[in-house]
Amino acid sequence: EIVLTQSPGTLSLSPGETATLSCRASQNIRASDLVWYQQTPGQAPRVLIYGASSRATGIPDRFSGSGSGTDFTLTISRLEPEDFVVYYCQQFGGSPPVTFGQGTRLES
Amino acid sequence: QVQLVQSGAEVKKPGASVKVSCKTSGYTFTDSNIYWVRQATGQGLEWMGWVNPNSGNTAYAPRFQGRVTMTRNSSISTAYMELSSLTSEDTAVYYCTRDVMALTRRWFDPWGQGTLVTVSS
User: Fold this and answer.
1) Cis peptide leading into B62, omega within 30 of 0?
2) B65-107 residue pLDDT tens
3) Burial class (CB in 10 A: 0-12, 13-18, 19+), B21
4) From the list A32, A54, A98, which residue is nearest B35 (CB)?
5) Across the interface, which of B37, B108, B113 has its CB nearest the CB of A47?
6) Which residue, of A6, A37, A96, B28, is most buried by count of CB atoms within 10 Å of its CB?
């Protein structure tokens, strides 16, 4: 089973700063299979980044993704108040075919 | 636009079963697999399984094998997830979502609004 470990668990920053969120896989995964989601309290997750680095439709360019192999990063520049929510990484592939990281909470 | 609309909240007693529906619109139902993901209060996302709306083929996460059944009715573009032998640990919000593919890349979009299932005696 591919395990995704996100760090930190909670990240404390201020509006206007830059957030760097990490997602580490227990074994190499294809970048095409790595996705980032954002979840606001009481809402379903929404896709931010797919294929490790491609922004989903309507996602501002303040959000960017990078990485390969086992190490992937979500970077959020110029933090806005609405960015202070929870972020998950997720991968397709292997057995089981879908796994999620445990999430990173971004707090102000 | 693409929409996935789930059935309403449920309250069940331990040992019972629950069946959640996910009605889709705005795209060809048979073009995308439907996945089910659950989230206990304050916890992370947990993949449960998927159903192929075209063939009816399914795949389940090992921890739910034998207790979950995912089906679909293509005539009404609706997928279903039934979970049996419920315990309090099954209290969670259950989401359906579809996979989207572009070249070699895949992602989940959109997600249903979620269905809260509460298991309590």
Assistant:
1) no
2) 999 999 999 999 999 999 999 999 999 999 999 999 998 999 9
3) buried
4) A98
5) B108
6) A37
| Per-residue pLDDT at A96 | 78
Per-residue model confidence (pLDDT) at position B31: 94
Contacts of A102 in chain B (CB under 8 A): 44
Q: What is the pLDDT of residue B88?
A: 97
Q: Select from A98, A99, A102 the residue whose CB has the most chain B CBs within 10 Å, as the one to mutate to test that interface.
A: A98
Does the distance separating the beta carbons of B108 and A96 come in below 8 Å?
no
* pLDDT the model gives residue B72: 97
Return the amino acid letter for B21: S
Alpha carbons B4 and B27: distance in angstroms, whole number: 10
Question: How far are the Cα atoms of A16, B1, B4, B98 from residue B27, in angstroms, in the given order?
Answer: 38, 8, 10, 11
Would you state the structure tokens that stand for residue A34, as one six-digit string?
A: 């790595």
Residue of A nearest to B39 (CA): A44
Q: What is the DSSP letter of A56?
A: P
Query: What are the chain B neighbours of A103 within 8 Å (beta carbons)?
Result: 44-45
